[in-house]
Amino acid sequence: MQRFLWLFSKHTKENYKTYLMSLGVVAGILFISLGYVAYFEGLGNGIQEAFFAVFLVFSGSVFASLAFSNLGHKNNAISILTLPVSTFERFLVSWIYSFVIFQIAFVACFYAVDIAIINISNHNSTTKTEVFDIISADSRMYIVFLCFWLLHGVSFLGSVFFQKLHFIKTALVFFLVLTILVFANQALARLIMDHHVSVRMPLSNLFIKEGTSMYYIDTHASMPLILTIMLSVGALCLWAAAYFKLKEKQV
User: Fold this and answer.
1) Residue 200 — φ and ψ, nearest 5°?
2) Across-strand partners of 206?
3) Longest Cα–Cα distance in the chain
4) Which sequence spans correspond to the domains of the chain?
5) Phi, psi (deg, nearest 5) at residue 197
6) Low-confidence ranges of the chain (pLDDT < 50)
């Protein structure tokens, strides 16, 4: 534990300025974007949730894809891999920063900017805008966090797997696999139903066309639980793959 804390402290001292600057950039872009929308259209709960989801997923994926970017540079890689710590300790430090600390910092940053923008817009307005509640009973933000967990795993694995252009190459592979999955799912649905079927994504609702009639088939009530389990297990598998890939580099 003491060795891990030393490694965590070393990583923090070497990278805290970069992390703070990155957080400042995200806060600045959020402030400009939210301020622009608030000035022209207003910030309803739906718009706030959309901004939260997009910025969390995109900025989090970029950040995770840079977790092991130093391994792509030979001089840095040698000094990192020869450091007398275990592979799991090295993996855990990067995982904690890119997953746990990032989510906490992003939520705090988003709410600080969002509250500031809403207070400014409410100052001289007759209609008051409220800050959206991320943990309300009717909120579906847990889906956003589950998607972020999965994409974090994808980006985290890509940061170890690729030597350069980690985010671009990871995003390219991810969207290629997603496109193949969507088209394969569409073909499989049509084969099973033997009708003209329209399906958006795997495990989503179905639209069946028969003549001039359209039929809508909703998913089972247990589908949210199934998706939660699938996304969580997928993220765990990707994190495990990233760990063993890092261990391979260590060897």
Assistant:
1) -75, -60
2) 199, 217
3) 70
4) 2-250
5) -115, 140
6) none
